[in-house]
Design goal:
Layout lengths: L3 E8 L5 H14 L5 E8 L5 E4 L16 E4 L8 E6 L2 E6 L2 E4 L10 H9 L8 H8 L1 H10 L7 E5 L9 H11 L3 E5 L9 E3 L5 H9 L4 E6 L3 E10 L4 E2 L3 E4 L7 H5 L5 E3 L6 H17 L4 E10 L5 E7 L9 H9 L3 H20 L3
Parallel strand pairs: 1-2, 1-7
Antiparallel strand pairs: 2-3, 3-4, 4-5, 5-6, 8-11, 9-10, 9-11, 12-13, 12-14, 12-16, 14-15, 16-17
Length: about 350
């Protein structure tokens, strides 16, 4: 059997660099090596690209860099692959499909997708526009509201406003309209990086300054006493939703440490919710996926009010975590798609979407 050449991109220049390495390691450990020839392409925090052929266990520790070779993936359709230079010699590795495992800015936001579109090579996940819209929490929430999808109320604060003394009262008034507690988030970031739950006015400015380290746009979101529910979506033209799962965070909310390091956080799959709520969440997940014109995959995060049971769509992640504890592969496994089968389907969907784009009517 002729193997497909799959390039797995990991690392990247965002605050989610470490999570990306964990996700890539997990994908490589679960992908069918009999079907695919894997090329690991690591991107450093400085934006340098390397081809790595060594032990996957060295990815998380950064030891991989010692054995890596500088690499170029350019936009020319003549060279659909990886070009390396070592000891004055060039080598070219053709690529059939790319699996970008790059969470956050400069990876999940349409930038890498744009490069791959120019290259005309299939890639896993949504296209440029959908990736950009889903990455930006402000624009995605506006589209949710326009599509009749319930989402928590929010307002926006810009980084340059924080240094303007004349804006301080206006910012406090704006946030007061949302109320406390509220969540302060960078508009373009994931894995709970830069997020703070603010309980009162005294905590506000420190939280805004933290979020401003990661983005010039900051979203202030209504705090809801809610259960955290997640659902996975898979497909192109006819997407389907997995069963939903519930997260019981070890901390006050599901922050970075609670997600990746605190083993006291618990996942319940399926979520212990009424059947009618399960179907409502699955339907809303697909509706949001279609509203933002996604393809391939997305993890859709919900909040279910503990008092009223009302469901709110919080955000949609186009390159969800693939670590050993991540919900996206776990949800599909519980729905009947083991991890290796899920990877197969994602690659098939990428190739199918590329063919559809090139079809002449």
């Amino acid at each position: 059997m002729v193997k497909l050449n799959v390039a797995v991109l990991f690392g990247g220049q965002s605050g989610e660099h470490e999570v990306s390495k964990m996700s890539a390691k997990s994908i490589i450990n679960n992908i069918n090596k009999d079907k695919y020839e894997i090329y690991l392409v690591g991107i450093t925090k400085c934006g340098e690209w390397y081809l790595y052929k060594g032990d996957v266990e060295k990815i998380e520790t950064d030891e991989w860099k010692k054995e890596a070779i500088p690499v170029v993936i350019g936009p020319s359709t003549k060279y659909k692959g990886i070009l390396t230079l070592k000891d004055g010699k060039y080598e070219f590795y053709p690529i059939d499909v790319v699996f970008p495992v790059l969470h956050g800015p400069n990876g999940e936001d349409g930038t890498v997708q744009g490069l791959l579109e120019l290259l005309e090579v299939p890639y896993v996940g949504p296209n440029v526009l959908s990736s950009s819209l889903c990455m930006d929490k402000i624009f995605s929430k506006r589209l949710f509201k326009e599509s009749g999808i319930p989402t928590p109320d929010f307002t926006i604060v810009y980084r340059n406003e924080l240094n303007d003394i004349n804006k301080k009262d206006e910012i406090f008034n704006r946030v007061s309209g949302i109320g406390y507690p509220c969540f302060i988030k960078p508009a373009n970031m994931g894995s709970s990086v830069g997020i703070t739950k603010v309980h009162n006015e005294n905590e506000l400015y420190d939280a805004l300054k933290l979020a401003a380290k990661y983005d010039r746009k900051i979203i202030v979101e209504q705090g809801i006493d809610a259960r955290e529910i997640e659902c996975a979506v898979l497909g192109n033209e006819n997407p389907e939703a997995s069963i939903a799962g519930e997260i019981l965070p070890a901390h006050e909310f599901y922050d970075y440490d609670a997600k990746y390091y605190d083993e006291a956080s618990k996942l319940f799959i399926p979520a212990p919710i009424p059947d009618v709520k399960m179907e409502e969440i699955r339907d809303l997940a697909v509706k949001a996926f279609v509203a933002l014109d996604c393809r391939g995959m997305a993890r859709v995060d919900f909040l279910m009010d503990k008092n009223t049971g009302k469901v709110y769509l919080n955000e949609l992640n186009t390159i969800p975590g693939f670590t050993k504890i991540s919900m996206y592969p776990k949800l599909w496994e519980a729905t009947g798609k083991p991890y290796p089968v899920l990877i197969d389907e994602l690659i098939e969907l990428a190739i199918s979407a590329n063919k559809e784009k090139c079809t002449n009517w």
